[in-house]
Structures are given as structure tokens and as C-alpha cells.
Design goal:
Length: 116
């Protein structure tokens, strides 16, 4: 986590809660984001959050690649943020006895393999 820092990009308004249920699509297949937890920061946070949490049951590596392509943020920059969010989720799931603890371990292990 020592390497985490905001990029040289400007700060932007973040959604900060990009779970699958907060991303809808309209009739024209446009994206509609709902239920934000707005904060200001580097876009890498939203992209890392989306990578880890959008569909926790699926392999996050495909989302990592898509996030890299769509955002232009390198995997080298995204992965440490993803790992930090995984650790946060892992500790929270452990504290509350959530059944997703094991899955978060798997997601974290997949992300750790992507460290370059």
C-alpha cells in the first residue's frame, strides 16, 4: 500500500459505490449510475472498485483488462488499488462473518498474480 497515491490526473467527482446493482442501462444501452457515495479523488479508485466488486463471483482479471482499456489507466496502477480494496473487503467480511470471505480471498489471489 505504500505505493498508492493519487495519479497526476486532476481530482474528479467519484461515484465510489460501483456495485453491480448501482449500474443500470437505459433503452439505448447507455449507462446510468445510481446510489452514489460521492467523493473527490483519482479515477483509479472507481475503476479499481468496479474491478473488484462489480461481480464478485466472476474472475476479476477480465474486468481488470477491460478497466485498463476503457480508462487508459495501466494495470500496474490499478492492481495495487484493487489489492487494497480486496484487503479492506476481506477484513470487513471476516469481522462480520460474511460468507463472501473465501471468495474475496480468491479475488485477492487473482489480483496478486497480476502484480508486475
Amino acid at each position: 500500500m505504500r505505493g498508492l497515491r493519487m495519479g497526476e490526473r486532476r481530482s474528479v467527482l467519484l461515484h465510489a459505490d460501483l456495485y453491480r446493482e448501482n449500474i443500470l442501462f437505459d433503452n439505448a444501452r447507455g449507462v446510468v449510475f445510481i446510489d452514489p457515495l460521492p467523493m473527490v479523488g483519482d479515477p483509479v479508485f472507481d475503476w479499481a472498485f468496479w474491478t473488484v466488486y462489480y461481480d464478485l463471483e466472476r474472475d476479476p482479471v477480465d474486468r481488470l483488462k477491460l478497466a485498463n482499456q476503457a480508462s487508459g489507466i495501466s494495470s500496474g496502477e490499478l492492481v495495487p488499488w484493487c489489492l487494497t480494496l480486496c484487503l479492506d473487503g476481506l477484513l470487513y467480511y471476516r469481522q462480520v462473518g460474511d460468507s463472501r470471505l473465501g471468495r474475496m480471498r480468491d479475488v485477492m489471489a487473482a489480483m496478486a498474480k497480476e502484480v508486475r
